[in-house]
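From the pipeline queue, job 12 of 40. The input is one protein chain; the requested action is below.

Action: predict structure.
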Amino acid sequence: MTPEISVLVPIYNVERYLEACLDSLCAQSFEDFEVILINDGSTDSSREIIQRYLDKDPRFSVIDKPNSGYGASMNRGLQKARGTYIAILESDDLFEPDALEVLHDAVQWEDADAVKANFWLYWSVPEELRVPFDLVDPEHAGETFCPSTEGEWLFYGKPSIWSALYKRSFLVDNGIDFLETPGASYQDTSFTFKVWALANKVTCIPNYVLRYRQDNEASSINSPGKVYCVCDEYAEIQRFLNERPELSERLMAIACRMKFDSYMWNAGRLSSELREKFLDRAREELTEDLALGRLDPGMLGWYKRTDLMALLSEPKRFLSAFGTYGSDDELTMLKHYWQLGGPSAALQLAARFAARRVVG
């Protein structure tokens, strides 16, 4: 019997968190789903944990493959999936018990190509903590629209592919899959862009469907092999738009604004040595985008526009003053913390951000 939803779970050396992740699937109020566990050559006890779920729940299956990265794992899962809809759950995150139910209800209500929801920022140590992340704000909650013509704001949100549900036929018919670059960073960027660019109907709901883990130290991108993964993603977006002039006219400037934001956020996570090399490449690409009319500085806002011009005209000075870039994501989180717990809570979160960068 064909399941209604296929849940893809990419797994690589995540023994510390995997049981909690898979338990959150077993606890779903919606039961008509299959789980495809993609084991990307794990060398810890992840495979033994997987086997326990295979033995006790027939909805679980596994793909065992040599380590080849996140994008390759996700594409293998998409190829095997049989469900009408596709859900994604990272192996260190947790679905809320009603996650699949509310996503499924919403996508069916409007017969949408995809549904997008909110999520929690989640820490389990030193104590359990959840902070709401409102990708879908009250203004857009309950709306169904075409992102490429009516929902520019959606392109600028955190990709968060796991707080969504996708119609599988929509992905297959449009050839939407993941870029198979080495490492495991940013592979959701071009995937999400293509979904929003090609979807005719996306429904947005205010529900918090997932706990997005913030305390997994293994999730750092601070290694030379991963630094430029984000550049590969935007090169893929550029290729995608070049092949679709009708979309390029509407979306190229949006893609370039996204690129600037992503590059600055990426630079803020890197060590000083890696940051300098990355910003050199960012400056080359953004200079070309500006010269060819792809990047519109007027779309950036005054402080980002100032940063762009400083990077392009005085790169050494910009680097020395860069410090840690204040991403929109972090500012949103700090605002929520301030509202929930006042100044002291916001200061604690700011300290966590700082510690994460030092450790990373």
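Job complete. The first strand starts at residue 5 and ends at 11.
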